[in-house]
Amino acid sequence: MSDCLFCKIVKGDIPSNKVYEDELCLAFYDIDPQAPTHFLVIPKTHIGSVSEVNEENAAVVAHIFTVIAKVTKELGVDSYRVVSNIGEQAGQSVFHLHFHVLGGRDMTWPPG
Ligand code: AMP
Ligand code: ZN
Question: Are the CB atoms for 69 and 27 separated by under 8 Å?
Answer without folding.
Answer: no
